[in-house]
User: Fold this.
Amino acid sequence: MKNVIIKFFWERCREFIVEDEDAFLVEATAEEASSIVIPLLSPRERVKFDQMKDIYVAKETSGRATAGSYYFLVSRAKELKFESVAILTSDLSGRGGNVKAIPDIKIASIDELDKIDPSAY
Assistant:
């Protein structure tokens, strides 16, 4: 079974059209990304992924990053953005909201985000 992994919860994330939308940072291997995440990307984000995938892929395992993985920001409204692996170590406080690391949570579908209660972690 293919699963993506939730790494962070970003309360009131301002990175989407609907501002202050809660979001999750999702980690996916190339295979998981192509089957679970990429089909849900907007045309613009898909172009970004195609152009930047060789640069944005995690080159080594360190901290919370896993070599060969890609990272996506997914809002509760299921809007998705492709992100650099650097987001794992970035100071996101200036980008609004409250970001907190949560234990890795495996999900097989983006629809499962609705079942995650970040306050439980």
Remarks:
- Residues 43-56 form the longest helix (14 residues).
